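Subject: two folds for Thursday's group meeting

Dear M.,

Sorry for the delay on this. The cluster queue was jammed most of the week, so I only got both jobs back this morning. I'm pasting them in the order they finished. Each block is the input sequence followed by the predicted structure tokens. Could you check whether the formatting survives your parser before we put anything on slides? The first protein is the one we discussed after the seminar.
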Amino acid sequence: MSVMQAPRTKHSTGPSVDPADELEALFWKLDPIPGHRVELLEGQIVVSPLAVFWHARVVTWLLRCFGDVCEASGWEQGPGADLMLQPTRDIAEPDHLLVRDPDKFSDTEREVPVEHVLLVSEVVSPSSKRADREVKPLSYAKAGIPFYLLVDRFVEPATITLFSEPSEGGYAKSEAVPAGPDGGKLWVPDPFSITLDAATLPMPRG
């Protein structure tokens, strides 16, 4: 993982430029970096390598878990979209997100309007532990995203945690269940009203 911090502004007689504005403008000008994910977190452009294949298997599992309720409700889901998160001004690319009213925004742009997002999911990787456990939950909550689902295999036992009730101070509620062969059941309330069977979560094979 590498980072790029906000550039220092030069002294001039013109209007002052906010370094955060400069960094955000730079972020949107960056071309995709093959094999990497690029995000803007805590005032830094963060470049992370793409995760291992197990990571993709978990995302596929999430797509299947939410597939029926999405079809019934006219929602859409998938990986790979940029979310502009106010008021932290972070720009995150969640591993999985679920949106309502997909026909009301363009899907040919990098950014998905955060007001359409019902749920985001992150799958923890070695380089994303702090971001997924600490930075993103706060940013997602401040942005008003109703649910944040975290899959973490770097704890014992591996867990799936659902965060809900977003506020300015973070998510007020969380529920975790163990994952894997002895996994538990995780209830995802309205508007989903489904139960995730954590025992079916694919676990690393090596």
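Second protein, same layout:
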Amino acid sequence: MISEIEQYQKAKFLGKKEIRLAQTAMLRSHLLYARENSTAYKSVLSRKGLDIERMELEHLSLLPLTEKKDIESAPDSFLAVERHKIADIVLSSGTTGKPLPIFYTGQDLKRLAYNEAQAFAGCGIQAGDTALLTCTMDRCFVAGLAYFLGLRELGATVIRNGHGVIESHAEMIRTLRPTVIVGVPTFLKKLALSMNRTDSHLPAAGVRKIICIGEPLRGRRFELLGIGEELEELWGAKVYSTYASSETITTFCECTAQRGGHLLPELAVIEIVDDHGEVLPPGETGEIVLTPLAVEGMPLIRYKTGDISFMEESPCGCGRFSPRLGPILGRKNHLMKVKGTSFYPQAVFDVLENSGAVSNYYIEVFHESELSDRLVVHAATEDPSFTRLMLEDLLVAKLRVKPEVLMESDEIIKRKVFMPRSRKPVRFFDGRKEYVRHS
């Protein structure tokens, strides 16, 4: 598997025609491997009339989509190796709330390291950098492990401080002087604000790059959201967005041009599909579907991530011709329709982040009628002059609907947003699921 990646690892710097040829060869190899070793795909890929050895990229849409619930119902049927070859088990969140096991072999971990190393290199990280990881490596969570392996593959030094408290990270920054920080944007903003109260000039700390995970950093036109602008100002550093899927062992990270997350053509085929599963052209918004290449443990085909974005195929300023994934605009099942207007939670978050007065927040959505949801915004502010009516006016101006707004204390909102079992802040609570289950 790794030898295949090495054979095509320069594909991202080739022209579109050469990238297509490389991807086609790797896709055929991937499908043949899945047919021979994965019970879940054997019958699908063995059906009469399907000639895998002649399959082109556009033929991929002839194959069925794979959903998370398919893996949940029979995870072992997707396993393509004997149990003794499994090196690591990752737990991904399942649709039923039960953790979903994803099996990685030793070769898959090498692939993971290569994936992250290439992603970090694209945004200018190199040997000689020191990176502070503010994300956990425990509880079978893959992100922290992936970042560690990728940074070490590059030759960078890693500070594995994990999911620690603010003062712990602040001390690491003061004493160990990292040049790169990896973490969730809202946490890194709080870390910066805390350090600014004790450290006279935070940019002097030497942090040059901030790799943001878990929360959107950019809007539909690649513009920095409010949280991104604040981070750059507070740290005096450039911020980069990265997106990944643990099920597919695939990462899309911004390069120095900061115009979308680059696909590594030797690692995956990406499709954007509509609600009916039809493949959309570049620039059209839909659900991200990934077919990871050269995976040994659980080789998936056309995996529906549930995330909404679009694909950008214009040449990138960094010199690459490989496709790029746009910002994550929301989760497919999070789409709300309020009084005839449809939007994702991120549209609400953008208003709150850019308000200049909201210090903390979360939103709830409930079933109101067959034609409309009810949206409730919970917000905290440290500005006594900022009123509920002022926030309502901001939301109406951007969303074209008027949600219910509740102003609450920062402490109350923190208890809701930062839950003990969660790996990152939870700001969207969907009460519509309760309606469906009990109706």
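Two things I noticed about the second structure. Residues 1-331 form a domain with the Rossmann fold fold (CATH 3.40.50.12780). The radius of gyration is 22 Å.

Cheers,
T.
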